[in-house]
Amino acid sequence: MGTPVHASSDGPPLLTEHGVMGPVREMEFTARFSRADGEFAAQAAAVAVTRVIDAPLSFVSPVLDAGCSTSKCLLARSAADACRIVLTADASGITVAATDDVAVSLDAGEQVDAKNLPLLAVVDGLNVHHGTDGHVWVVWKGSWRRTA
Question: CB atoms < 10 A from the CB of 43, how many?
Answer without folding.
Answer: 17
